[in-house]
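User: I'm writing a tutorial on reading structure tokens. Could you give me a worked example: one chain, its sequence, then its tokens, then a sentence or two explaining what the tokens reveal?
Assistant: Sure. Here is the example chain.
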Amino acid sequence: MTQEIHDPGSDDLQAAYATADQQDSVGMRALAGLFLLEHEFRRVPDQPHLARLIVNRLNRFAPYDCALFWTSSNAGRIHNVTISGVEPTKDTKPVLKWGGQVARWLAKSGLGNTQIGPEMIDDEKKLADWPVNIAKSGLYVPLIGQDGRMRGGILLLRAAPWAQPVRVMMDQLGEAAAYTVRALDLGVHGRAAKRVNWIGLTSGLALLAIIAGSFFVPMPVNVDVPARLATAPPADAPRGPAQIDLLVPPAGAMALAPGTRLRIRHQNMDYQLEVEHVTNWLVALFDDRKVRARVVASPDGLAPPAFERLTIENAHTPLAFYVMRGPVRAMRAYLGLGAPR
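And here are its predicted structure tokens:
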């Protein structure tokens, strides 16, 4: 009997070996296909590429007639519904709509790794328009991440039942797909990764620091600016002897503050004035700044009767305000506010 078992010529023994080898070969090919597919997950740039990869390549691991893949948000909204062999066109809208209905049904069902049967589909009224050429049975695998949240799902449809080893390996595939979906959402995976741009962030912080510091850098001002007499005194500034009210455009009046010295030349005579009150430049951005000045020196002891320009002498203004003079002047000219009234 022993001799018969080890006899190389035994037909029954050779047939048994051939059957075992064939089963091992099919299992190894399926396992290798699963590992290669999970390896491809690392290279996908976005979720649509991941969806097409799963529905078009998963048949190398587990044969099926039709495959559906979708992703879902934390709120349960379904995205990226993809069906094997179906491209999103105007003609395929009905079948993609059917795929979305199936995805929403399974996402709300709370099922885990489950074999779907015809009775489950027939009990669902929203799935009454099930395509006649697609089997009503299959394997549903939710994409559950390590945090326990659902990221989507996979549904493989075929009439034949699914073996337990395949279901176990599909669970592993679903976990890997869920991890990839989460990584894509966070921007740490794929070509479109949203990584921190440290150079840009550092440059932005440096620019912000320069802008903030410019408000603490005084710039000496000794400049000739347009001005004219005001027809009404500024608010909350009582009028006194030897005082005049002026109107100065904001672009030229950035450096004005109480105590600023002004010089006006009229008919070859110089008049010295000192600012006592001035309206806020931000409030008067779209209007001339109202200035009340006191005459401190004049040839005839009187204020100048008229003038078109004055000189701001020995004043200081923050560097930021000094730089803003040009943009403010351009904005007023664009809005038609530059011409004196």
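What the tokens reveal: The domain at 212-334 is CATH 2.40.30.170 (Elongation Factor Tu (Ef-tu); domain 3). Confidence is low (pLDDT under 50) at residues 1-9, 20-24, 190-194.
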